[in-house]
TrEMBL record:
SUPFAM superfamilies with a match to the protein in the record: Porins (SSF56935)
Protein name, per record: Uncharacterized protein
UniProt cross-references to InterPro entries, sorted A to Z: Porin_dom_sf
Amino acid sequence: MKKILHGILLMMTFGIMGQTKNDSVSSFQKMKEAIKLELKEELKAELKKDFIKENKSLVDWSKFTLSGYGVVNYYHYGRYDTDLNIKDKFDAERLNLYLGYNFNDWISFKSEIEFEHGGTGSTIELDTQEEFGEYEQEIESGGEVKIEQIHINFAIRPYLNVRVGRMKIHFGLAQDLDRPISYFTTHRQEMENEILPLGWYENGVQIHGIFWKRLKYEVSITNGLDASGFSSRGWIKDGYQTRFEMANGNSLAFTGRLDYKFGKNKYTYVGMSAYLNDAAANRPKNDMSESAYVTILEGHITYDEDYLRFNSVILWGNLENSNIVSRKNSSLSNNLGVKRTPVGKNTLGFSFEGGYEILHFINTTAKQKIYPFIRYDYYDTMHEVEGNVIRKPRWERSALMGGINWFVHPQIVLKAHYQNRRLGSDNYDPVTSLYTGRKQEENTLSAGIGFSF
């Protein structure tokens, strides 16, 4: 500020002198401009000091949250009776990013964006399982960017919170144990992934909370499934409404979940879930007057304490009027992009996964971890049928897996496992067409890397 005062005095001096000397006018103007510039710089410096001192920011980054995870896998196929020409594959399976914002201490925003299979756009797929070797154009399963979640959460009380928007349906365990550091296999949990939409996100309202620090509940009212996507292989999986820009909401879905936490780790709990929805009302066209209620029940347990980790799920589902759904689906247009195969009335599934950390036997202070593990899945999407629908034993499947997880860092894991999947269908020699005396098998060796942050 001393420089400013000196400048003002100089300006006054030159002003007096300028009254008697005409040739000093230009010098006065130059000095005036120089003082104005210096004054501006001084004011900027003062403002900057005040800005830093008060620690103000145009964007309060402390209110934002960012997290995510990713998976990249390699698959080598051995004996694969259902597709003798199958090729080994690399798959940039998923990159999920979560961006959140805290408006205040009880209102927050959460979003999730998923980059799936390395890109965006439609793909062509050779379907040897249900489409009899036909090429089909896929919009959904390959190269995709999706907004999975976008909702506002109101944290009213520990026992009463409300989410509004598009959110995750926490049904089963795979929806909770969805980060690659939370499950042992390279790919998603097989039984749940073959029967249910994974990940499963719907639009609506979700009420959740916790009592006595251990009893957790969640109740969701959302848009439901579309029965035109049901199939032999996946049961209701492809009824997940992603084929159109907007989801039909003629029939709402009701989901309830209850968990009891009994350990120190957040992934140590036991619980159950239930789902109910009339999927006929959400078909693209009004081509089915009968209802098609989907009822799914499941029980689960997950344990992660000290060196032992395991989890297990048992699942049962029922589809009302599955024979009528099968008949209506068989006459759907090819342009709809659905399987149009017969649908089972009941589905049954069971899974178990367990591993034990062994590196501590060698080095008790090691920060890295090594888990040998085993996993078993059994599932039958045509466990029971009704009407004139013929049960296909091919869709009764069991898979035994064994492998290893190496946590090079608590948030980075290298994985490898071998899988033997057995189908309920008989195997025939591809050359002689004679029965080989055994069931069909699908064997896979896979490896991958997963990370979470």
